[in-house]
């Protein structure tokens, strides 16, 4: 059965994920290092991992299976999920794919280097309504794709 894993610590679309999962009767697993309240649903599991830079990512990568879906902004985690045959999308609705993940990893390294040298000081643009709408559309189509596989 398809499950949805959420890298939940800073995820802005937890409620949207739960609503799409409920529509398809899918289990949602929220993984964080604390600070998130449990959802009042048997279909939502809250997993609290030890605090650490990649603890939630490691837990998700160790437990996700083929055709499961991961919601994350973390590019290395998305790459690990894709390697296991899972699907991954960003909270802004952008899907991670086999053909795009290499460029995303390279761009991440480049931007990290530019930030470290002070050449770039700003962050990403603010999360908006259009991002939320794009996410809902992409999650719906991603779940349908996962269920077909």
Features:
6 strands; alpha/beta; single chain; 6-stranded mixed sheet; Rossmann fold; 149 residues
3D architecture notes:
By secondary structure, the chain is an alpha/beta fold. It has one domain: Rossmann fold (3-Layer(aba) Sandwich). The chain contains five helices and six strands. The protein has a six-stranded mixed beta sheet, with helices on both faces. A hairpin with a 5-residue loop joins strand 5 and strand 6. Helix 1 packs parallel to helix 5 and helix 3 packs antiparallel against helix 4. The longest helix has 20 residues. The radius of gyration is 15 Å and the shape is globular. The relative contact order is 0.17. The model has no long low-confidence stretch (mean pLDDT 90).
Helix % is: 40-55%
Percent strand: 15-25%
Largest sheet, in brief, is: 6 strands, mixed
Report the mean per-residue pLDDT as an integer: 90
Number of domains: 1
Under CATH at level 1, the class stands as Alpha Beta
Structural class: alpha/beta
What gap, in angstroms, lies between the N and C termini? 10 Å
CATH architecture: 3-Layer(aba) Sandwich
Strand order of the largest sheet: 3-2-1-4-5-6
Q: Strand tally, please? A: 6
CATH topology: Rossmann fold
- Order of secondary-structure elements: EHEEHEHEEHH
* Low-pLDDT stretches: none
How large is the radius of gyration?
Answer: 15 Å
Q: Which outline best applies?
A: globular
Number of helices: 5
